[in-house]
Design brief:
Non-ribosomal Peptide Synthetase Peptidyl Carrier Protein, Chain A
């Protein structure tokens, strides 16, 4: 009876215990096609805190590997080859500012575009026909 209770107790709490993260969980983090660089780095760093035994060289390799194909920052990083994780993050700051400026400009241009005027009556030419323009 006591051994059954001990078994049930330990299996219940062992299953609910958070398992430590591994290097494989690092490899699963990749930048989404429309994910801003800032969000990707934030997700990666959140995971990095939970993984034990990962040195900065491995983190740098995996964060670069997870960058979305076709992004400018990935091209620059492959050309410049940052020597450390901190160098990669310094390069990333420039691209984060660039992405955020583009986003702010797109919001600004949406506000400045006047809404299309809608008319209840269609435009007619001199002969009384509706015009498609």
């Amino acid at each position: 009876m006591w051994s059954d209770l001990c078994y049930e107790f330990t299996t219940h709490f062992t299953a609910s215990r958070t398992q430590p993260k591994t290097m494989a969980s690092f490899e699963a983090i990749v930048q989404g096609r429309n994910e801003p660089l800032r969000d990707y780095i934030k997700s990666f760093n959140k995971e990095a805190i939970q993984v034990r035994g990962a040195d900065d060289t491995m983190k740098k390799y995996l964060i670069i590997k997870g960058l979305c194909e076709g992004k400018h920052v990935k091209k620059v990083v492959h050309l410049d080859r940052p020597g450390s994780l901190n160098e990669f993050l310094a390069i990333s700051k420039t691209y984060i500012r660039y992405e955020e400026e583009l986003y702010a400009d797109s919001l600004k241009s949406k506000k400045e575009d006047p809404p299309a005027e809608s008319s209840k009556k269609p435009f007619h030419d001199k002969k009384g026909r509706e015009n498609c323009s």
